[in-house]
Fold this sequence. Notes:
10 strands, two-stranded antiparallel sheet
Amino acid sequence: xxxxxxxxxxxxxxxxxxYAVVAFIIMQLVEILFPMFxxxxxxxxxxxxxxxxxxxxxVILSWVFDRTPQGFVKTDFKDIEEIGGIKVKVDxxxxxxxxxxxxxxxxxxxxxxxxxxxxxxxxxxxxxxxKALTKMAILPFTNIRQDKENDFLGFALSDEIINQLGYLxxxxxxxxxxxxxxxxxDEDLNQVGSDxxxxxxxxxxxxxxxxxxxxxxxxIDLNKNERLWNKTVxxxxxxxxKIQKDISDDIVxxxxxxxxxxxxxxxxxxxxxxxxxxxxxxxxxxxxxxxxLTFLQNVEYKFDLIDKAIKIDPNFGDxxxxxxxxxxxxxxxxVEPSKYKKIAAESxxxxxxxxxxxLSTIRRSSGYFAESGNVEKATEMLLNGMNKSGGSxxxxxxxxxxxxxxxxxxxxxxxxxxxxxxxxxxxxxxQTRLVQMGKSYIYQKKYSDxxxxxxxxxxxxxxxxxxxxxxxxxxxxxxxxxxxxxxxxIYLNDVIDNNDMGTWVLISQAYLSLINGDLxxxxxxxxxxxxxxxxxxEMKYRLxxxxxxxxxxxKALKALDESVDGGFFCYSYIExxxxxxxxxxxxxxxxxxxxxxxxxxxxxxxxxxxIKSVIGMAS
Length: 619
């Protein structure tokens, strides 16, 4: 008798198939039922391991023993054998004629049906129940004593918790920019929930006395009009770094959110930070503005704070990225540009090396790398961040939309901004995203659309804060392209009159002088821009416009070439920009366009499919 026939005679195949069917059904039920009853994830893993370990044991036992009316006996008989005074017959009928095999086949079909249909229906029901708990806002905490020395903690701590929860793939947390306006206010929570489109709100208050910090927080379910939990902790201020993690853990526990292994690793991945360095970091990232200081003086003050933080704790990755942001602002504003440009490059590189998965570091660093020429590195970072967060952080999409504009993917850029609005459609966020989308419309020659978007968005932004210089500047651009210089001058003058001297002020002054025909004054402003040393390749592209207006073809081509090499390879826009039309037939211009086109095509080949997948666009 062959080995195969012996396996068949000893019913090894029958036992293996029966075990597989039962194991399959058990695993399907485990996958469906355990989450419904909030069983810990380890219970699912343990059950699966036990089932798998049982398989070889069942096969071995089926080889050695056979089940008979007398119980389990060794399988050493063939067709008929007398055991304990009873003759036992081995069933040699064909497969389909044996009842037990019919039941076996029925079990397989049932298991497949449960896996294909039952799981989907039940899991959809579970997901639909959880959806009410996916959108939340963490409001800036209230300082009970309202001493200005510690007011910074209210926003800074809530921002840290927001960043911490960014790793949770099924919870969308409104970004800090959306909740900042509620700091120090007594808004009705139901109105806040309506404004921010959230169902959960975390509020809190704190009191610092000496080296002790007491923080009280509560999580409110607006739909049920009930408090899910509240907690008060008092710790030494040296443990303030740990507080934000503890609150994040409390939120996860309160929502009965089952963490995936990767989420656990990311939430646990932050190393301990020196408490003094962390205090400087929180003060430096605070939205508070020191009275009596100008915007740039405030940035210099905050740079000094973060500089102290990294000197105390040189392994604090997020502090390095914040240092890079402050240095970049100072450099671009003309404050010792060569010094702060070097500091920004050093800081961002250090931050990425120390904290490659930190969402705060990714958001701060990606824009810098794009502006300074490495659009591909910025894209890699953002895709990494999107994967880590499960695509639930609106700010990452916003940053990606900005970078895609540099790479010349206008439709994708607009789609990414729209995707970010799906995650955060609060009024201020929506208007700032629309401004960015308006820039893409300019590059697509949709000047009237861009003009309408800018005018409506800036008007709404005014309800929340003063528009920043580049927002007001781009409001002028459609009118420059439409040759409506009088209207363009209104917005350019607004930038000049209402902002500290900086890059956007100089750019606005240069455009204003040149469109009014004052070439001498325009040249002065351009010289000042050159002295600052523009690092942003999209800004550098403006120099090409200026030199064409000055009829300096050589410098215009040089500026255009440096812009493309610096990372602004928006090929379709560069090729057809009406403001650079006088040099379009120049051989050098055609070489530059070809270089931009090649880099654009390589970028699309490398990232195009993944980007479209992330934003749900058809390939």
